[in-house]
Amino acid sequence: MSRLIFLFCFLTVSVFGEMVKIPAGKWKPFLKESESKLGATIPIKSFYLDEYPVTNKEYSEFIETNPQWKKGKVSALFADGGYLGDWKGKNYEESQTNSPVTYVSWFSANAYCQWKGKRLPKESEWEYAASIPPSGKNKKAVETVILNWYGEVRPQFLPNVGQYKNGFGVYDQHGMIWEWVFDFNNTSVTGDSRQDTDIESSLFCGGGSLKANDFSNYASYMRYGYRAGLKGWYTAKYLGFRCAKD
């Protein structure tokens, strides 16, 4: 019996050692959809979420095992020409190994998560986990972090992961990058996604606030607007991902 307990503990650490267990709870969606009337909440089942965004080092291990996802080899159906745009040749800067990988498409992010035996988080799961403020802070403090990030000049090179920890113990959901979610195109924000070569400045829509549960939540509005303008093959300098697991 003791050996079975040891084996179970070992497997649990191996599979979930870099993931955080998010407890079940209720979440109030930002947008008023058919499943969520004004003021209503929806239940979220417990799940696991990566503690950090996927890094350059981790993604490099993925493409070494899955060479079809190497830079220059991916079909335009699955990633645009910017794929891994900040990697020099086939590699990335050694100093950036623990920075979040960016310039990845939904298809490549989804393939990575499946390779790890995981999946991309649902939008509701990602938002629910991201909504819990750090210990001793309130939600206004979280909004301040997000709005400051929106307003500041983005760095040429991203810092290492582990900069901002929320109340669930998950790092960097805010203040560093945008992140893919499984159902990113489920967001029904209407507006004028601008056809521009700069994805970072063009993926914001102008008319969706009429469907918002909270008109003052500008931080969430920008995030939902960004997702609404994405296509599965898009890549962008500050767009990365993390994985989830049931």
Automatic annotation (TrEMBL):
Gene Ontology MF annotations: formylglycine-generating oxidase activity
Pfam families: FGE-sulfatase
Domain Sulfatase-modifying factor enzyme-like: 18-245
InterPro entries documented for this protein: CTDL_fold, Sulfatase_Mod_Factor_Kinase, SUMF_dom, SUMF_sf
SUPFAM superfamilies documented for this protein: C-type lectin-like (SSF56436)
Domain of life where this protein originates: Bacteria
Coiled-coil regions, chain positions: none
Entry-linked PANTHER family: FORMYLGLYCINE-GENERATING ENZYME, SULFATASE MODIFYING FACTOR 1, 2
Protein name: Formylglycine-generating enzyme family protein
